[in-house]
Amino acid sequence: MKQKVDWIIHCCENGACDECGRVETNFLPYTCNAHTHGMERYEHMDFQMVLHLGHREIMRILNTLGLRVQAGERFKDGDMVAGIYEDCNIRLTKYIETGRWVLRVIIPDKYNVFPEDDHCMETYRLQLLKTDALCPSDRFWV
Q1: Number of domains the chain is built from
Q2: Long-range interactions of 95-100: CB distance < 8 A, separation 24+
Q3: Which domain of life is it from (predicted)?
């Protein structure tokens, strides 16, 4: 039986809204708030990514995790997850995203160094910020 994606992914980021045309400019460079809605039907937390790797890669990662949950796999805070990238694991860390708990995908840098290490590339360290800090409210819609 072929699995069906039955959740949605929101990607809040800098740029124009497809619905209303307003322009968002507040996200810190290289960041976004991409997250799923719908994992609760599997009694599982939703997923979040904050490192802006492009839409295709964000969708690939979040949908891969969603399909694994749909197939019965369960993830929790602190899990190291293989199979997303060939050369490294990712880590799932519990964060608050607009008032709910999600599992944030934490990706190591190109040297396989995770963000809490002082030697991690600066862009990847942005993954440790609280969700609200990614888009300071004093720089909202244009």
Answers
A1: 1
A2: 95/48, 95/130, 95/131, 96/130, 96/131, 97/33, 97/35, 97/46, 97/48, 97/131, 98/131, 100/46
A3: Bacteria
CA 50 to chain centre: 5
Segments in the chain forming alpha helices (H): 55-70, 122-125
- The domain of 77 spans 8-133
Please give the Cα distance from 133 to 8 (Å, whole number): 24
CA distance 82 to 88: 7
Q: How far is CA 59 from the centre of its chain?
A: 9
Residues 89-123 have pLDDT tens digits of 999 999 999 899 999 999 999 999 999 999 999 99
Residue 38: Cβ within 10 Å count: 16
Q: Is residue 142 part of a domain?
A: no
- CB neighbour burial string for 90-104, b if at least 16 within 10 angstroms, e if fewer: bbbbebebeeeebbb
Instruction: Quote the pLDDT of residue 139.
Output: 45
Report how far apart, in Å, the C-alpha atoms of 91 and of each of 21, 80, 119, 122, 125 are.
Answer: 35, 4, 17, 18, 13
